From TrEMBL:
One of its GO terms (cellular component) is bacterial-type flagellum basal body. Its main location: membrane. One of its GO terms (biological process) is bacterial-type flagellum assembly. Belongs to the FliR/MopE/SpaR family. The chain crosses the membrane at residues 12-33, 40-59, 79-104, 125-152, 172-201, 213-233. It is found in: Cell membrane; Bacterial flagellum basal body. It is a multi-pass membrane protein. It comes from the Bacteria. Coiled coil: none annotated. Keywords: Bacterial flagellum, Cell membrane, Cell projection, Cilium, Flagellum, Membrane, Transmembrane, Transmembrane helix. This is Flagellar biosynthetic protein FliR.
Amino acid sequence: MLSLTSVQISAFIGTFWWPFCRIMGAFMIMPFLGNNYIPVTVRILLAVSISALIAPLLPPVPQVDAISFQALILAVEQLLVGFMLALFLSIMIHVMTLFGAMMSMQMGLSMAVMNDPSSGGSNPLLGLWFMLYGTLLFLALDGHLVAIGVLVDSFKLWPIGMGVFELPLMSLIARFAWIFAAAFMLALPAILAMLVVNLTFGVLSRAAPSLNVFALGFPMSMLMGLLCVFFSFSGLPSRYSDLCLDALSAMYQFIGGAI
């Protein structure tokens, strides 16, 4: 007759439960998978499937009672590790949102705001458009598959039970400064072009005070902004692929991986 002890049952549950917590923590905010349009059931089933596939390949997990307070702490740690890993990718996607917001301000479209149900807030129209473009480009580059691969490798590079505070948290905080630098780098050509347009109309307003510069300047700024948006798509995929590679590399190095 088959008999199992509580220790064996706890070990069996922990083999699947700890990887599930880390993967589910990443799927909460990972681009596309963390979107509110993706049902929670799909995310849970995907996390359970990946956990079941990689469980036999993982290093030994800590032997902790599944219903103890220590097990709760360990589950929270795995959620935080997965959350922080996926945060690198979430910051990368929001580079495009900030890029669109900068262009909207220069074009005079900052008042054109669209409600975004996926984030629960309001974003500039171009910001939402570029965010969708960045998400599709990330999927086209198979970035989601690379991210899941890094997440699976994290169990070997940063085994379960290593804790959270030993991670290089300052590198994660530095990414919040990186988002502004990356968005400004993408928007710099359009900002300079719009600055030339605004300077031109400033000179016209001084040379011909009777000219209604506001009636003429707004549509011209809008037209120049649309041209900047059109021409920005020529070099945006290559630059954004570099940003994706940088974000995935930072995500891999965060858990002790060597590039």
